[in-house]
Amino acid sequence: MAVKEKKSSRKTASPAVKGRGAISIRNVTKIYDPEGVNIMAVDNCSLEIAAGEVCMIVGPSGCGKTTLLNVIAGFHSLTSGKIYLDDELLCGPDKPLADQGADRMVVFQNGALFPWKSLLDNVAYGPMVQGILSKSEALDKARDKLAEAGLIEVADKFPGEVSSGMARRAEIVRALINDPKVLLLDEPYRAMDALTKSIMHEALLEMYDRTKVTIFFITHDLEEAIFLGDRAVVMTTRPARTKKIVSVKIPRPRDYKLLSSEQFRLLVEEAKEAVHEEAIKAFEAGERELA
Amino acid sequence: MIAWGCSDFGESSERVSKLRQSEWRRMSDQAISGNEVSKTDMAPKGLGLAWYQLKKNLATPAPYLMVFGIILWLGTYYLLTEGWKVPRFEKIPGPVEVIKEFFSYDPIWGTSLFTEDFHENVYVSCRRILIAFTIATGLGVPLGLFMGWSRKFKDYAFPILETLRPIPILAWVPLAIIMFSGFETPILFLATLASFFVTALNTMLGVESIDESYFRAAGCLGSKKHHVFWHVVMPGAMPFIFTGLQISVGVAWFSLVAAEMISGDYGLGYMIMDSYMVNKYVSMVMAMISLGFVGWGTSALVRWSGNQMMQWRVKALALEGR
Amino acid sequence: MTNAVQSAHDTTIVVAKRSKLRRLADNKTLWRGFASIILFILIWEVGSQSKDWFGVEVPFVGKVPPPSEVLAIWVEVVQRPGYWESWYLSFMRVFLGFFVAMIIGIPFGMALAVNKYFRDIFFPPFEILRPIPPLAWVPASIIFWPTTELSIAFVTFLGAFFTIVINVLGGARTIDVQYLRAAQSMGATQWDLFRRIILPGTLPSIFTGAAVGMGITWEVVVAAEMISGGGQQSGGGLGFFIWSSYMGGTLAQVIVGMISIGIAGYISSSLIRYIGYILMPWRRIF
């Protein structure tokens, strides 16, 4: 596993470092080959994500957005095309599989907090195994981060003992403690009810405002995309291609009152038709949900 | 897989889970208002929990029916063998006779709870199980972990295992006698072999059952291979490993008894066979019942140590009302 | 043979499509499996023969007959009718005990799952008897039953019975209560509920229990055949075949017997899996 050496360890929030976490996706194609039947998941997709940007990827289920995330994270290899992270080649024709690393942290759809470790141990895990901090230092730092996120009371509990909202927030803390360049989220709030979701959104925005990490967020919820993102990229049904990009020029910090504003409604309308078109196509194609 | 001694169907848990559901409703109301409270803070803990569950249990008809069921069974057993002396059943000793004999200081047939040879037999069987189980676990768990983790290793090791596994353990008896000298080693070999197959298979399945996401998350977080092994593979496979261990203890007993019956010189299996040969049927029944107890005891011990090592699971399952 | 995958843009990406034969040849798992089994047989052969070939005896393996000898004996044994008779006898015993265990076990397990009072009364004695290994029942069984055949059948029955009941009980209890509620809201009677929801819902567990029970049944039959064959004259069977081969000193034949039983057990389990496949069409997607 390639682990990038950290030259400084940040303990407090600071503005985005210029050019840190910019992703350049150029003509990426991914073809699966299960049992000799080729399935194209991503078709010649190109996208430029600026450093510190919140880029929301919207599309119907099973269209290939998760595949794109997996390629960036290094879980899958790409078939053709290149991906650059801060002008360094992440993966390309000579290196189809990117290394997994702490510079691109992933938050998974169904939650991947280790159930056998307490929240504290989960959060401290990253710095500890990377050798950046000793065990006690890592635990201290983890405690600080959890306190920042308002989770200090349940820090010693196991993920199975806390509510899903707390667990998801802890998972994001676990990702952010490693000071990643990019945070990759794969429909993390999909399984939650709308009320918990709104709390999660505010928590995420708060963490973003503090760290200004580049966020690559996959969702099927258009309103979530407009509320959280700087840009909402609408993808087509499988194979995935960029269909439409909506720029969300609403200043930060944002709060839930934005949801009832005129500006918000207009933006949603702008993207709605494109999303709906793809939703119909996906439905008709009988996409099996990769739930 | 044989599920010896796994009795995890608690009837009272339904009532406890209903109570937890209403508490959870109360807590989720608070959560919506932005005041998240951890679930386990509200529930009674430890001894208080045990007392609470006991009280709830006694309020239901369940424990009384259980007593009734046991009395019904013992009663039928008694009537068939000693009371009415139904033909064919009369040859079998009844519960009264067995219990009297078991607890007497000077048993008619020479064996009771207090005699030397009974202790000897129980001790020998238990010691063999301990040795066999330890070796089987010591070999089976690492093998299973590697087979589950490394595709390559599994491709080489699994076919051999799967070819040998369908052969019933007792079919190995002659081979065991040929290969190993003496009485003790073949018996230990058989029990170990049976236990080993079960443990290795279950451990492997355990590793394979670990969600891919955990491996990916560990990769993201910068783990090296040995980190993944100690922090993901081992703890992740634990539930399956312990289920496998419970089964393997049962299988070890099964094989041990069989081996002792055929070619033993001590042990509970031997005691059954020997008592049968000299028509000491009461001792035979005593040995059978003792086997049941000891078998259940070892299984419970494995289950208990499993729960100790997997506190995270116990707590999570408790919250689901199980 | 290539497959051109058309992209929406003008570029065509060409990916090689492999034929079925090629895919089989590329299948590393298969080749590694072959390699390791062949290696195993080779080590066995060398280990057994090392005394004759090199004058050095390998511990343990040295005393075992080599695979070449086993193969030779097998070719001979297969031609004897007595050998196939053993197959027949063992299979009969296995299926008899197994069948009775299913007939009694499934209803008993269902009753335990469905009716709370029944469970509260009958489950405790069941749980108390369960830890006693089936073979411990052999002498008691011989005392009780008039013929050896029945006593073996009884012990076989016991072995499979406990497993089947536990699996049925577990399976029935995991049926989502929402299915039952949905049926009730559509006007189902108790019998409907049982026949159309609980029974099919429990089928997967019944088959799991059956597969495991089958394995236990074989163990017990072989053991019983060896034990009673050792004591008195019993009517053959594969277990007896092994025992008498051992007594007669034809060690290679013992191994033939062992492998035969392994094959027989595998056939029985496959049969059950196949029946399950037919009876549960909704599981075929997986």
Short précis:
The complex is a heterotrimer of chains A (291), B (322) and C (286). Chain B is an all-alpha fold and 322 residues long.
What can you see in these coordinates?
The complex is a heterotrimer of chains A (291), B (322) and C (286). Chain A is of the alpha/beta class and 291 residues long. Helices cover 33% and strands 21% of the residues of chain A. Chain A is built from seven helices and ten strands. In chain A, helix 5 links the parallel strand 7 and strand 8. In chain A, helix 2 packs parallel to helix 4, helix 4 packs parallel to helix 5 and helix 6 crosses helix 7. Chain B is mainly alpha-helical. In chain B, helix 10 runs parallel beside helix 11. Chain C is mainly alpha-helical and 286 residues long. Chain C contains eleven helices and two strands; from the N terminus they run E-E-H-H-H-H-H-H-H-H-H-H-H. A two-stranded antiparallel sheet of chain C has the order 1-2. In chain C, strand 1 and strand 2 form a beta hairpin. The longest helix of chain C has 42 residues. The relative contact order of chain C is 0.10. Chains A and C meet through strand 2 of A and loops of C.
Strand content of chain B: under 5%
Count of helical regions of chain A: 7
Oligomer: heterotrimer
Bin the helical content of chain A: 25-40%
Sheet with the most strands: spatial strand order of chain A: 6-7-8-3-9-10
Key traits:
heterotrimer, A: 291 residues, alpha/beta, 7 helices, B: mainly alpha, 13 helices, disordered N terminus
Topology, please?
The complex is a heterotrimer of chains A (291), B (322) and C (286).
Chain A: E1 23-32, E2 39-49, E3 54-58, H1 65-73, E4 80-85, E5 88-91, E6 104-107, H2 119-129, H3 135-148, H4 164-176, E7 182-186, H5 194-211, E8 214-219, H6 222-228, E9 231-235, E10 242-247, H7 262-284
Parallel strand pairs in A: 3-8, 3-9, 6-7, 7-8
Antiparallel strand pairs in A: 1-2, 1-4, 4-5, 9-10
Chain B: H1 13-32, H2 46-59, H3 62-83, H4 95-103, H5 116-149, H6 151-164, H7 173-179, H8 184-208, H9 212-220, H10 225-263, H11 268-277, H12 281-309, H13 311-319
Helix pairs in contact in B: 4-12, 5-6, 5-8, 5-10, 5-11, 7-8, 8-10, 9-10, 10-11, 10-12, 11-12
Chain C: E1 2-6, E2 12-16, H1 20-26, H2 28-54, H3 67-77, H4 81-114, H5 116-129, H6 138-144, H7 148-173, H8 177-185, H9 190-231, H10 238-247, H11 251-279
